[in-house]
Amino acid sequence: xxxxMDPKQMAKLMKQMGINTNEIRAKEVVIxxxxxxxxxxxxxVVEISMQGQKSYQISGTVKxxxxxxxxxxxxxxxxxxxxxPAEAAKALKETNGDIAEAIIRLQK
Length: 108
Known about the structure:
CATH architecture of the largest domain: Single Sheet
Number of domains: 2
Radius of gyration: 21 Å
Number of helices: 4
CATH class of the largest domain: Mainly Beta
CATH topology of the largest domain: Ubiquitin Ligase Nedd4, Chain: W
Distance between the termini: 60 Å
Strand content: 35-45%
CATH superfamily of the largest domain: Nascent polypeptide-associated complex domain
């Protein structure tokens, strides 16, 4: 922020420059990469629109989780074992991503 400028003045200046901000009331923000999942709990999310482009500023409590399997694996296990995706994901987690073992466990 600029020194000696209150938030209302800052918002007015940004609006004059064509920059619009909007606070988004989010419960959780999840960012998935190839090898991990970043979960931001109790997030404060601000959408910033400028020159037709939107960007998001996110802050909150961050947790990182290692991904052991893909959504495709979950779908395949759920179809083969005739169960819900949540049950398939749990079985994959318990078997460290072993698809065959997860299906066998769920069919018992």
